[in-house]
């Protein structure tokens, strides 16, 4: 039972030998990281499931009802878990479940599902209902597609199946695809319907956490560019149906939305480009890229002016934080690679050294990008677990970690500062203002006086 | 009492419960050297970890057999065995609790057989594996908690020579509540076996390190000795008989069972003290009688304010009964009493307590959701809520402030420290309730009186 793997960094962490290929060292190692596989049983992965992936992508559609077809747990754990803000309806913050019981598992849950849809329509009249399949409803073979289609006809409203049975994969990315299919079904015009093309763009993979989409919209408006609809932050069903009318799709969370962007290009001929609004540099680059697409002198000028003004405005603040954070050692463990890349650039911009970067769902190419950004000797890890994180935080002498909720308590247990970058965050971390908020978040944790005080009694 | 079983609806809107295996995870944390393995798909364990992290502010590692499509069709045996191997390798637990999910149960996994084979194949020594069926469709986290506690006792209990310790079996309360119960027992000079005891595992002192399996919890040796105890005190009025650990000990080993309500409120605390006095032959120590006196003094000081409270109380059945007792004793007659669990037999347990309510009887809801609770609370004119974070919409939508108690508390810090039991815990809870009522009153009475006297608007409110 003592098959310990050897870390490329020279340590011998108590990790599982089968995970050896999921941990590499930047610079020295040329071997590609092992990733995108199912989580190893018993490894205590930080990953969620297919259903979770689908739910987080679709949840910010504000006026839709999200109905989870399964036993109670799946719905109750995902009730209002996103920090997405809405300018109108708050319907999305409710959690609906068919609450399958033993008899439904034995006799099938289709009738109950239909009855639940009827009740929801009668009480709330939503413009759309997303119906999520879970492990059990998928396993017993409930035909949610048929039930949804029948309900759509019965009520003349959108009832959209999301095939997100958790067991399909331990990888959330598979759930992103289920959500994407549901979105495409909603977006695609029905026979006889047409959507006028406009000069506006769609913002894909932007969930309006703490109003981040609104901030980006302010920039774009100033540049003279309108947002047609964001997927799915602060969107409504009616907004989404106008999606084919955009002239460009910009993609932020690539993991959840690249496939949708490709579909939109195929179906409606809309081109797409990747953007990233995390960090001042990334924001400036993205705005320029968008402006260039419009090939309009006035737009370009306004963009340059905006970037110059905003960059100058936040520079003193960033310098203040940089002075205090320079030389500190940071670790990153997040869900998707686009966020990891953005965090590396931002932390480095604050003068910090990144000693560990990992993701739950990164792909080979994305890990190559990450490795290329890091200094030699930094650890890159896929689908890690608490035992490994503990080891890395200690061995790499980390001062501050950026990640999600489960990493938070692990870091603080070890006396390591922590920056929350999860999907229910309450701080706006995007754009120029977000860059300052982010620096403040890092500073308030890395430089908190508590680290000087919390030590065992009588300790040095 | 107006029993309103609003269960004509099929759809559950805003859940007032978590799933069954989560309760099992928490109970297992009260067993020394234990680690939980969830037999199901990856997401279940992650969600349960998140819920525990947010409430307890502690890392709670839960392994998963990470079933995917292939195993769902062909059986999850190989994955479960691999999960057990890896968990033993990294965590080196002395007890592994395997909790099933709805997926594993629907697949029809023969857990006992798999674990028997695994134990034989690996020639296991020094690690005990306890299997607990906890399908999500079988009940809420409350039932999962009781099921796991009972399964642990059934696994470890051995015929034992009679001894003078007593068994104390607790429902799902906070680590702070567990510590308070232990303090009371110690002050009475009692030797006891408390199960489950997660007072140190789900609320760790800072130590500059992370223990994969934190120290603490009831030891297997102590659990083995439970059949020889003088008696069992089980704080579990609402525990279903088929899941009752104390009843099992009584039926299998003849250990007399004393069922008591969770000791919150003067009367319930007094009942516990009387039993403890009878067992030990000792008087109540000064510390506790002072605490009792302070509670009474506070109740007298605060009764006018509390009489204005019309609480909506919700959560796990045993917690709900305890919170109801405290509110009733202080003249804050509940508007609504509700639980997401449908197995607590709340109607029956509450009937004698509610008989004394003057004025409109509270609405009692079981197996319910927050949509139903919210509607009932508004109809009944509730002006304060007592329960977990699920009641956040009472405040957001209607300005009814929630005094957070029970589980889960994920939008405030310190869920692990919420104290509600004992005379001291009751007083801590009561002060929070009273002050919430005062805060609302002082925050609005000038405007309300002015409007009322000047006839500008017709207002309700506190």
Which properties best describe this structure?
heterodimer, A: 460 residues, alpha/beta, four-stranded parallel sheet, 18 helices, 14 strands, 14% strand, globular, disordered N terminus, B: 462 residues, six-stranded parallel sheet, 17 helices
**CA distance, first residue to last residue of chain B:** 24 Å
Strand order of the largest sheet of chain A: 1-12-11-10-13-14
Mean pLDDT of chain A: 93
Distance between the termini of chain A: 37 Å
Strand line-up of the largest beta sheet of chain B: 1-13-12-11-14-15
Quaternary assembly: heterodimer
Largest sheet of chain B: 6 strands, parallel
Outline the low-pLDDT stretches of chain B: 1-6
- The proportion of strand residues of chain A reads 5-15%
Summed up, the helix count of chain A is 18
Bulk shape of chain A: globular
Structural class of chain B: alpha/beta
Residue windows where pLDDT falls under 50 for at least 5 positions of chain A: 1-14
Specify the structural class of chain A. Answer: alpha/beta
The shape of chain B, in one word, is globular
Give the DSSP E fraction of chain B (strand runs of 2 or more residues).
5-15%
The percentage helix of chain B is 40-55%
Helix content of chain A: 40-55%
Radius of gyration of chain A, CA atoms, in whole angstroms? 23 Å
Kindly describe this structure.
The complex is a heterodimer of chains A (460) and B (462). In chain A, 45% of the residues lie in helices and 14% in strands. Chain A is of the alpha/beta class. Chain A has a six-stranded mixed β-sheet, sandwiched between helices. A four-stranded parallel β-sheet of chain A has the order 3-2-4-5, with helices on both faces. In chain A, strands 7-6-8-9 form a four-stranded parallel β-sheet, sandwiched between helices. In chain A, β6, α8 and β7 (227-232) form a beta-alpha-beta unit. In chain B, 46% of the residues lie in helices and 13% in strands. Chain B has helices spanning 20-28, 42-56, 69-74, 77-91, 102-107, 111-122, 141-156, 175-187, 220-224, 245-253, 266-280, 286-306, 317-329, 346-354, 370-379, 392-398, 422-454, and strands spanning 2-3, 12-13, 34-39, 62-64, 95-100, 128-132, 166-169, 192-195, 232-235, 257-260, 311-314, 336-339, 363-366, 384-387, 402-404. Chain B has a six-stranded parallel β-sheet with strand order 1-13-12-11-14-15, with helices on both faces. In chain B, strands 4-3-5-6 form a four-stranded parallel β-sheet, sandwiched between helices. The chains are: A alpha/beta (460), B alpha/beta (462). At the A-B interface, α1, α2, β3, α3 and α4 of A face β2, α1, α2, β4 and α3 of B. β3 of chain A pairs antiparallel with β2 (12-13) of chain B, so a sheet runs across the interface.
């Amino acid at each position: 039972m003592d098959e310990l793997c050897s870390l490329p960094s020279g340590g011998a962490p108590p990790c599982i030998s089968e995970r050896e290929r999921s941990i590499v060292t930047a610079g020295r190692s040329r071997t590609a990281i092992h990733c995108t596989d199912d989580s190893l049983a018993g490894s205590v992965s930080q990953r969620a499931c297919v259903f979770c992936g689908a739910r987080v992508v679709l949840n910010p559609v504000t006026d839709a009802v999200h109905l989870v077809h399964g036993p109670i747990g799946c719905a109750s754990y995902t009730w209002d878990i996103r920090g997405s803000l809405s300018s109108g309806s708050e319907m999305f913050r409710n959690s609906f479940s068919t609450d399958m019981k033993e008899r439904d598992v034995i006799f099938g849950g289709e009738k109950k599902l239909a009855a639940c849809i009827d009740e929801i329509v009668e009480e709330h009249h939503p413009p759309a209902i997303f119906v999520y399949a879970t492990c059990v409803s998928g396993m017993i073979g409930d035909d949610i597609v048929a039930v949804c289609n029948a309900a759509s006809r019965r009520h003349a409203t959108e009832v959209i199946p999301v095939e997100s049975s958790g067991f399909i994969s331990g990888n959330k990315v598979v759930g992103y695809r289920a959500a994407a299919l549901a979105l495409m079904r909603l977006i695609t015009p029905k026979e006889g319907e047409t959507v006028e093309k406009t000069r506006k763009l769609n913002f894909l993979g932007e969930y309006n956490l703490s109003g981040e989409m609104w901030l980006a919209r302010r920039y774009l408006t100033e540049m003279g560019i309108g947002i047609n609809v964001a997927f799915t932050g602060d969107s409504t069903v009616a907004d989404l149906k106008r999606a084919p009318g955009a002239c460009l799709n910009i993609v932020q969370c690539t993991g959840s939305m690249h496939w949708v962007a490709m579909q939109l290009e195929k179906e409606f001929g809309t081109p797409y480009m990747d953007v990233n609004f995390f960090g001042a540099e990334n924001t400036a680059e993205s705005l320029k890229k968008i402006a260039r697409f419009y090939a309009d002198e006035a737009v370009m000028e306004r963009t340059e002016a905006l970037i110059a003004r905003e960059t100058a405005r936040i520079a003193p603040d960033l310098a203040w934080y940089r002075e205090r954070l320079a030389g500190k050692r940071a670790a990153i463990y997040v869900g998707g690679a686009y966020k990891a890349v953005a965090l590396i650039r931002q932390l480095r911009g604050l003068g910090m050294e990144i000693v560990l970067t990992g993701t739950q769902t990164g792909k080979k190419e994305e890990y190559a990008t990450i490795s290329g950004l890091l200094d030699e000797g930094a650890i890159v890890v896929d689908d890690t677990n608490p035992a490994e994180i503990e080891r890395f935080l200690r061995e790499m002498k980390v001062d501050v970690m950026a990640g999600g909720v489960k990493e938070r308590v692990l870091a603080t247990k070890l006396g390591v500062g922590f920056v929350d970058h999860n999907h229910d965050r309450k701080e706006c971390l995007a754009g120029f203002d977000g860059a300052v908020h982010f620096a403040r978040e890092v500073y308030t944790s890395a430089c908190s006086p508590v680290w000087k005080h919390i030590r065992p009694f009588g300790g040095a | 009492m107006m029993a309103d079983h609003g269960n004509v609806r099929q759809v559950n809107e805003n859940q007032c419960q978590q799933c069954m295996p989560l309760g099992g995870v928490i109970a297992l944390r009260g067993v020394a050297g234990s680690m939980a393995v969830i037999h199901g798909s990856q997401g279940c364990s992650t969600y349960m970890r998140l819920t525990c992290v947010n409430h307890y502010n502690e890392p709670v590692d839960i392994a998963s057999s990470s079933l995917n499509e292939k195993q769902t069709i062909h059986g999850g045996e190989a994955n479960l065995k691999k999960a057990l191997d890896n968990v033993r390798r990294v965590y080196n637990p002395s007890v592994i609790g395997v909790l099933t999910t709805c997926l594993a149960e629907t697949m029809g996994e023969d857990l006992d057989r798999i674990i028997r084979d695994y134990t034989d194949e690996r020639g296991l020594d020094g690690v005990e594996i306890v299997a607990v069926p906890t399908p999500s469709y079988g009940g809420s986290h409350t039932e999962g908690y009781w099921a796991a506690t009972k399964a642990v006792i059934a696994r470890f209990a051995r015929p034992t020579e009679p001894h003078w310790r007593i068994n104390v079996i607790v429902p799902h309360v906070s680590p702070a509540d567990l510590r308070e119960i232990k303090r009371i027992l110690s002050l009475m000079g009692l030797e006891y076996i408390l199960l489950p005891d997660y007072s140190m595992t789900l609320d760790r002192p800072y130590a500059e390190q992370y223990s994969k399996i934190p120290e603490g919890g009831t030891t297997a040796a102590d659990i083995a000795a439970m059949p020889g105890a003088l008696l069992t005190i089980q704080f579990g009025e609402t525990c279903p008989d088929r899941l009752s650990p104390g009843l099992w000990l009584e039926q299998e080993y003849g250990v007399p069972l004393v069922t008591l309500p969770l000791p919150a409120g003067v009367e319930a605390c007094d009942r516990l003290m009387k039993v403890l006095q009878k067992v030990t032959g000792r008087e109540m120590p000064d510390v506790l009688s002072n605490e009792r006196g302070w509670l009474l003094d506070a109740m007298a000081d605060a009764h006018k304010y509390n009489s204005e409270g019309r609480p909506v109380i919700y959560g796990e059945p045993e917690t709900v009964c305890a919170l109801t007792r405290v509110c009733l004793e202080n003249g804050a007659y509940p508007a609504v009493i509700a639980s997401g669990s449908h197995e607590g037999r709340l109607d029956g347990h509450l009937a004698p307590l509610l008989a004394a309510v003057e004025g409109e009887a509270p609405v009692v809801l079981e197996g319910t959701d927050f949509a139903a609770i919210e509607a009932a609370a508004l109809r009944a004119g509730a002006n304060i809520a007592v329960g977990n974070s699920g009641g956040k919409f009472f405040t957001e939508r209607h300005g009814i402030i929630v005094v957070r108690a029970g589980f889960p508390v994920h939008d405030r810090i310190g869920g692990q420290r919420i104290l509600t039991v004992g005379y001291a815990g009751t007083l801590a809870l009561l002060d929070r309730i009273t002050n919430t009522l005062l805060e609302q009153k002082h925050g609005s009475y000038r405007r309300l009186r002015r409007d009322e006297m000047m006839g500008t608007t017709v207002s309700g409110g506190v």
